[in-house]
Design a protein that fits this description.
The chain has 15 helices and twelve strands. It is of the alpha/beta class and about 400 residues long. The protein folds into two domains: about 5-140, Rossmann fold (3-Layer(aba) Sandwich); about 145-400, no CATH class. The chain has a seven-stranded mixed sheet, sandwiched between helices. Strand 10, helix 14 (about 360-365) and strand 11 form a beta-alpha-beta unit. Helix 11 (about 235-240) packs across helix 12 (about 245-255).
Length: about 400
């Protein structure tokens, strides 16, 4: 399945010389995307740190890589530069110094792609800085917009397009990870999820963190899954697992860093009596959330997070995702900001009761957000630009999400 990130990588390699870092959860398709570089050049090499033979080549300093790609040879200008992929190299304790030295020596003659299943800022085992030597992009699961259009746009919001209801239902039920979405088989999905979780906790977390209590961390992960869309109560979780609140906070950072879950914080500017403390938690894989309304909210949260990450990484501006809630418990599920200014709000309803939430009017007045949407799941898509409306409006979830990324 061709993805929007294929177009992104191709355009990036045409325009920039810096290394390209692709990060995202396990099995989201980073390796497949990087292997697509074979089509862009005659000289391609791929090294995976989890492969023993590849690991030996990297540790010995890369001389074999240089010979394989003939990097000491002068290539004609019209010939595409060689492409070199390092997959999961962040597991190497000296990965930063290795990449720095390699890029400083050969960066003008080669394109380098680096993939990682963790946020690279957790891997601080080496002090050498790569600042200025790379751009990073966060790879997300397949979304509604990717199912209808994979072209790169010139602005954030796209024109609405209709996704087939069967494809939308498959995406909602099986999730956006390529293997499960394409397979559309519940038994396969169940086994796939177990394998992914085992690899995450028994390999990645064990190898890259100092956490000894892996079993307790897995219990936290299960509790977090059951509380999707809810406020995080660190004290309550600490009591359930019998660890300190500080440990729970630290473990939450680990779960975030390995793309198991993500948290969003309340937007507080210009909100009278706003909620200042706890974040809300959501999952990268929404498919296994049993409660359908919680899954619907997580589904929208994942799409919005993908949009703000993509828009930021692509250079449109600085985007962030928050929620709105005050001490009187008035709440709107999400607000997206652009360059630290409220842009649009989204409140999620699984069923359409034909009445719009008064909280959208309340918070739009306080935040001056340009748009306010109440997205509904059991509403047929329409060929209308949601972003042409300034007042709060009820919109089909498929229509709004098709306009994102």
């Amino acid at each position: 399945m061709k993805r929007i990130y294929d177009s992104l990588i191709q355009r990036y390699l045409q325009q920039y010389n810096q290394m390209l870092f692709l990060s995202g959860p396990r099995r989201v398709g980073k390796s497949t995307l990087s292997l697509g570089g074979k089509k862009l050049t005659k000289n391609f090499a791929y090294y995976n740190w989890d492969n023993y033979e590849h690991k030996k080549i990297i540790i010995t300093g890369g001389e074999q890589i240089i010979e394989t790609l003939n990097l000491q040879k002068l290539y004609p200008k019209e010939e595409a530069k060689p492409i070199l992929v390092f997959d999961e190299i962040h597991k190497y304790s000296k990965w930063k110094s290795f990449l720095k030295d390699f890029f400083d020596t050969y960066g003008e003659r080669i394109h380098i792609i680096v993939t990682s299943s963790s946020k690279l800022n957790i891997c601080k085992k080496d002090g050498d800085s790569l600042l200025g030597r790379y751009f990073s992009y966060r790879v997300h699961p397949i979304s509604v917009a990717e199912c209808v259009d994979i072209e790169l746009g010139t602005q954030e919001v796209r024109k609405p397009k209709t996704i087939k209801r069967g494809i939308f239902q498959d995406l909602f039920e099986f999730g956006g990870f390529p293997e499960t979405f394409i397979k559309k088989d519940r038994r396969f999905s169940n086994r796939w999820q177990c394998l992914r979780k085992e690899q995450l906790f028994r390999e990645d977390v064990r190898d890259l963190t100092r956490v000894q209590e892996i079993s307790q961390l897995e219990i936290l992960a299960e509790l977090v899954y059951q509380q999707s869309g809810q406020l995080v109560n660190y004290s309550n979780l600490a009591n359930k697992i019998n660890v300190s609140v500080d440990t729970i906070r630290r473990w939450f950072e680990i779960l975030n860093s390995f793309y198991y879950c993500f948290t969003i914080r309340p937007w507080t500017k210009n909100i009278s009596r706003s909620l200042l403390k706890e974040p809300k938690v959501y999952q990268w894989d929404w498919s296994n959330i049993k409660d359908v309304e919680a899954r619907a909210e997580n589904f929208v949260a994942s799409h919005l997070l993908k949009a703000v990450h993509f828009w930021t990484d692509y250079g449109f501006g600085n985007y962030n995702l928050y929620f709105l809630r005050d001490k009187e418990k008035h709440e709107v599920d999400f607000i997206v900001t652009k360059d630290d200014k409220p842009w649009f709000m989204v409140d999620v309803k699984y069923s359409n009761d034909s009445s719009i939430s008064k909280n959208l009017f309340l918070f739009q007045k306080q935040t001056n957000a340009l748009h306010a949407f109440q997205v509904v799941f059991d509403m047929e898509p329409v060929d209308q630009d949601c972003f042409s409306y300034r007042e709060p409006v009820i919109v089909p979830v498929q229509t709004l999400l098709s306009q994102l990324v």
